[in-house]
C-alpha cells in the first residue's frame, strides 16, 4: 500500500500537538453553531454539494486524511469535523448525547452555508448520522455509515445477543466506571488507544507505516486536554440513557424508515461486524438503501483501504457509473 506524504507524529510526554493540516489539501476553519465553536477541515468549492464526514470514538477530522484526497476531483465540498469535545472543537461540560451531537452536525451544515449534505459517519459518527436523518431529515440528502449501526438496532442487539457485539459492549460498559477509563486512555502516552486501534484493523494492515501513523495521531488526539473524559461521556450517555426515561423518549424519535437512502458499509474483518445489524439498518433507510461489505479490511475501511472506499463513495454520490456497489 502506498503511503505518500505521511507525517511523522510522535505523541509527546508533555503538551500534545495536533497536525496543523489534518487533511491534505484542506483548509482548517472554525464554525459557530448553537453557542459552540467546531473545527472543520474543508476541501472543495463553496458552491458544490456538501459531504460531511463525522469521526467515531477517539478520532478526529484526521481520520479522513486518506479518504478525502482519494476522492480526487469529485465535484463536492468535503468537510471533516472535530465533534464537540474532540480536537480543536470546544470542550463543553455537557452535550455528549446523540440528540445534541446530531444538532451540532446539522448546525455545522448550515454554518458552512449549505441546506443539506451527504453525511458519512464512522462508528459513533454513524450513530450521529442516523440521528440527524431521524431528527432533521431535510439536512441529510443521503447517509453512509462506516462500521456503524442504527442506534435502535444496535441497542436491541446488545440486549438480545450481547456476545455478538462483545467488543462494543465491553468498551461501553467499561466507560461507565468513574475516572478509571480516562486514566487508562491517557496512561503511557495513550498506549491503550494505539492497542485498541491495532486490535480493530485487519492483521495485514498492522505492519504498514500507515497503521503506525494513525496510531500516533489517535494517541496525540486523546492526550489533548479533556478529550479522554469527554469521549467517554458519549459512551456513558449511550448506556445510561436506556436506564432512564430519556432513553425511551429518544427511541421514539426514530421513524420506521428515514427519508434519506442509507449505505451501510462494513469491513469483513471488523471484530464487531454482524451482517444482521447491517441488513436491519439498511431496512430502516429510505428507498435505495443497501449494504456493502468490503473484504480484507477491519473497523477502519476508510483508513485501511481508502481508494476502494473512495470508489464506493463516488458511485454512491453519482460521480462514477455503477460498478463498485455490486457484490
Automatic annotation (TrEMBL):
SUPFAM superfamilies linked to this entry? alpha/beta-Hydrolases (SSF53474)
Query: Where's the AB hydrolase-1 domain?
Result: 49-305
Protein name, UniProt field: Pimeloyl-ACP methyl ester carboxylesterase
Q: Where is this region: Disordered?
A: 1-22
Write out the biased-composition intervals (Pro residues): 9-22
- Return the Pfam families for the record: Abhydrolase_1 (PF00561)
One GO CC term on file: membrane
The record's section on InterPro entries has: AB_hydrolase_1, AB_hydrolase_fold, AB_hydrolase_sf, Epox_hydrolase-like
A GO MF annotation of the entry reads: monoacylglycerol lipase activity
Gene Ontology BP terms:
acylglycerol catabolic process
Amino acid at each position: 500500500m502506498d503511503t505518500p506524504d505521511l507525517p511523522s507524529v510522535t505523541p509527546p510526554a508533555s503538551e500534545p500537538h495536533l497536525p496543523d493540516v489534518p487533511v491534505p489539501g484542506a483548509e482548517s476553519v472554525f464554525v459557530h453553531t448553537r453557542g459552540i465553536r467546531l473545527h472543520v477541515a474543508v476541501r472543495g468549492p463553496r458552491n458544490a454539494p456538501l459531504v460531511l464526514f463525522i469521526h467515531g470514538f477517539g478520532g478526529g477530522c484526521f481520520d479522513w486524511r486518506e479518504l478525502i484526497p482519494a476522492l480526487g476531483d469529485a465535484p463536492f465540498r468535503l468537510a471533516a469535523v472535530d465533534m464537540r469535545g474532540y480536537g480543536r472543537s470546544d470542550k463543553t461540560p455537557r452535550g455528549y448525547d446523540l440528540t445534541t451531537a446530531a444538532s451540532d452536525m446539522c448546525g455545522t451544515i448550515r454554518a458552512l452555508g449549505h441546506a443539506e449534505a451527504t453525511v458519512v459517519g464512522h462508528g459513533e459518527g454513524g450513530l450521529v448520522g442516523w440521528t440527524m436523518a431521524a431528527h432533521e431529515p431535510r439536512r441529510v440528502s443521503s447517509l453512509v455509515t462506516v462500521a456503524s449501526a442504527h442506534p435502535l438496532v444496535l441497542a436491541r442487539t446488545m440486549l438480545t445477543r450481547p456476545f455478538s457485539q462483545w467488543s462494543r459492549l465491553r468498551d461501553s460498559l467499561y466507560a461507565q466506571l468513574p475516572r478509571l477509563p480516562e486514566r487508562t486512555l491517557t496512561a503511557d502516552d495513550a498506549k491503550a488507544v494505539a492497542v485498541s486501534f491495532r486490535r480493530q484493523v485487519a492483521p495485514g494492515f498492522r505492519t504498514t507505516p500507515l497503521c503506525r501513523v494513525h496510531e500516533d495521531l489517535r494517541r496525540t488526539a486523546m492526550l489533548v486536554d479533556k478529550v479522554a473524559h469527554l469521549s467517554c461521556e458519549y459512551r456513558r450517555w449511550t448506556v445510561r440513557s436506556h436506564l432512564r426515561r430519556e432513553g425511551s423518549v429518544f427511541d421514539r424519535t426514530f421513524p420506521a424508515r428515514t427519508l434519506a437512502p442509507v449505505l451501510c458499509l462494513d469491513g469483513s474483518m471488523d471484530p464487531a461486524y454482524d451482517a444482521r445489524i447491517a441488513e436491519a439498518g439498511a431496512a430502516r433507510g429510505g428507498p435505495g438503501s443497501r449494504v456493502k461489505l468490503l473484504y480484507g479490511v477491519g473497523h477502519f475501511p476508510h483508513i485501511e483501504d481508502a481508494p476502494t472506499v473512495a470508489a464506493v463513495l463516488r458511485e454512491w454520490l453519482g460521480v462514477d457509473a455503477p460498478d463498485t456497489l455490486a457484490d
